[in-house]
């Protein structure tokens, strides 16, 4: 089976700081890959490169055999959806409207674009009462979705981000620390949704520091360290690897 997603030789420096020195990574269709690494290892940078928010200095990224290029919205049209480590939502809009935006505008790169796109999407006839919104919200355990985003907890904002990404019916779903700040029921909802996406033959790239949750959720793991993928394999292989354990978990 050919990978749905492939990154080859991805390099990135911010001025004099070299963050990625040649990242090679793939995700198969129907697979959840957990990407881990210490704080500052470059995980979010890698996601920003995949999703077109920041350019790589070198490297190639393919989704379904097509080279990923162009703006975040253009990449969304190819089937890419993501969440952000810091939720990027329109706080003066309802949860329902924020979720609905995923269907009409796709991938969003920052708060300003979110607000703009949200306005355009809604003015452009983005439907906010479609059954899919209720279904996804309920799957994630999100209640009362007509509340304004500015009135809800941080954990609920995270769930809205996940819901918005799911509304895109992505081929590759990229989640940047989706569990942080989310309670037990939200966590279960996210895991259920991720597995549903995986079981439909799509691919999931899941970044999180919660190793216990990852071990229970992913099919394969990869460690980003010193700008490269240094360990990659099944959960059992990674957990048995001394570098993985010492770098990530802090035990040798
Ligand atoms: N726009 C930027 N300009 C300059 N340096 C940046 C920029 N974005 C990130 N960095 C730096 O790049 C390095 C990697 O950051 P990044 O956020 O990608 O790491 P991370 O693995 O996601 O970390 P964490 O787990 O803490 O979220 C860090 O040293 C960070 O300070």
From TrEMBL:
What the entry lists under InterPro entries is as follows: AAA+_ATPase, ABC_AA/LPS_Transport, ABC_transporter-like_ATP-bd, ABC_transporter-like_CS, P-loop_NTPase
Ranges for domain ABC transporter come to: 5-251
Q: Which domain of life is it from?
A: Bacteria
Q: What is this protein called?
A: ATP-binding cassette domain-containing protein
Record key words, sorted: ATP-binding, Nucleotide-binding, Transport
Q: Where is the signal peptide?
A: none
PANTHER family per the record? CONSERVED COMPONENT OF ABC TRANSPORTER FOR NATURAL AMINO ACIDS-RELATED
Native source organism of the sequence:
Azospirillum oleiclasticum
Key word ATP-binding present: yes
What would be an example GO MF term here?
A: ATP binding
